[in-house]
């Protein structure tokens, strides 16, 4: 500002702010975070921090997840999340923590750390070797697409096969015939006639219009279908009996599996 009075006032205010209004950034962020927390949450966090300081791995991981994802309405803090993940990874080589460190190095999310694809590759590799599925997929894709490493299809196949073997083992560990996924994929908006309502959406017009015909099966209640199939089954209709068995075996979004 021009003038002696204006200049003096300006620098007096700057000096006052510097001496009395400034607090360390970490302290300021900690105070603002504590003000946002409810009393039970504040107590829980203090208990977790006490346990984490005693190298309790569960507490360290939970604090890291809370700071990264904002779980339980806890304010996000990517810097603190990275510190917790890093402490956990250094303590016992936790593969989930290594994966998250690799992810944060590869994306630089939240400005917690600078982009470093070499370190991202390193941590993802350690996590993949420890069996973390997400890092196995990441490393496979990086080798396949030559991200921060020369293209190597053999390495990509090696890690993709690890994930595929785990998927097959899981599938075969279920009931006879293996686990089965719900086959009828759908969008929640479809139950209301589409994103913009009945007749005004892509899901209720064009190629999908027949699904919204009042005479179509889309409007049939599941209970009515089951009752009809049960009636036909009692009359000796083998196709209806098979359909009933298959419905209860595979389940759907409206019908839970019932193997019995």
From TrEMBL:
Pfam families according to UniProt: Sel1
Name recorded for this polypeptide: ERAD-associated protein
Family the entry assigns: Belongs to the sel-1 family.
């Amino acid at each position: 500002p021009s003038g002696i009075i204006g200049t003096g006032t300006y620098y007096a205010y700057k000096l006052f702010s510097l001496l009395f209004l400034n607090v360390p950034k970490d302290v300021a962020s900690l105070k603002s975070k504590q003000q946002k927390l409810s009393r039970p949450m504040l107590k829980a966090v203090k208990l977790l921090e006490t346990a984490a300081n005693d190298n309790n791995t569960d507490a360290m991981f939970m604090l890291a997840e809370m700071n990264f994802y904002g779980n339980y309405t806890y304010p996000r803090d990517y810097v603190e999340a990275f510190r917790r993940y890093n402490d956990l990874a250094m303590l016992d080589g936790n593969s989930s923590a290594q994966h998250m460190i690799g992810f944060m190095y590869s994306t630089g999310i939240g400005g917690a750390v600078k982009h470093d694809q070499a370190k991202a590759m390193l941590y993802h590799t350690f996590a993949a070797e420890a069996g973390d599925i997400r890092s196995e997929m990441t490393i496979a894709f990086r080798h396949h697409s030559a991200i921060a490493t020369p293209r190597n299809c053999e390495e990509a196949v090696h890690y993709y096969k690890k994930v595929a073997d785990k998927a097959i083992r899981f599938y075969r560990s279920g009931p006879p015939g293996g686990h089965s996924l719900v086959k009828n994929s759908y969008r929640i908006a479809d139950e209301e006639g589409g994103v913009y309502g009945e007749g005004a959406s892509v899901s209720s017009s064009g190629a999908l219009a027949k699904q919204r015909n009042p005479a179509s099966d889309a409007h049939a209640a599941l209970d009515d279908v089951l009752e009809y199939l049960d009636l036909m089954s009692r009359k000796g209709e083998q196709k209806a009996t098979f359909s009933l068995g298959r419905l209860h075996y595979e389940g759907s979004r409206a019908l839970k599996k019932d193997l019995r």
